[in-house]
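Handoff note, outgoing to incoming analyst
You'll be picking up this chain. Sequence as last confirmed:
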Amino acid sequence: MNDSRLPITDDHMHLNPGRGRGIEAIKEFRNAGGTHVLIVSLPADEYGMTIRSAQDYYVLYDRTIDTVRQANEYVHAYGVIGVHPAEFIGLAGSMGIEPAYAVVREGLEIAAKYVAEGKAIALKSGRPHYPVSPELWERSNRLMRYAMDLCVDQDCALQLHTESEPGTFASISAIAREQNLPPWRTIKHFSPPAVRECESLNVFPSVIAGKGALEQALSEGTRFMLETDYCDDPVRPGAVLGPKTVPRKTKEAIRNGVPEEVFYKIHKENPEKCYGIKIDL
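Most recent structure output, in case you need it:
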């Protein structure tokens, strides 16, 4: 358990109770010292669903929000919902680009309604991190821009799933500026520990807590959050990071001499600013 009363926040975790470990992963996170978690909706196929119309997103989002409700029995949990960019690519392949674009656009609008109703605190969107046709790339970017517009309307954050190639942060920053999305609301999920670059470009990094990443991020400042991107997929048990990772690495860093106050910034003040929530124990 977290005896120091330090909040420890995982900025991006997936749970899939019908297929994976579900709440057992949250218990593991809590027992390792975790206190707060952002639970992010999965693509529909991960839930065994097929999106045929935008109305199907109500079912998908409700599953995520119900999981958040269950997780709140053990930790402080919050919902982040939206449409994964890979889902648009898949839908474009099955129903055509324009019908898929219309479905995903409405799916993002539905997600924004959940934020307006207080059921979720942020949206997710982005663009493919792998090569696609120019037309799919253009439509993906257009959807990402629309998600930013919705976040501006709701005054909420947007977690972005994108590539991490050279120039990515500059591109995201420029698009966010054009859509008037504030830099503390523009969150790069699965970010490398490029803290100084992100700060200079007005993007907020959610650093994937892999080997050496926390140490590198700390060497560049404290303007970042930490995540595991835990995927809760029994078919890929070693994919990404486990639910204990963020608490374990935080405690290791403190034992190795990093002042606890540094982690108040990372686990409390930063998510409070980005998401407009209160991180209390």
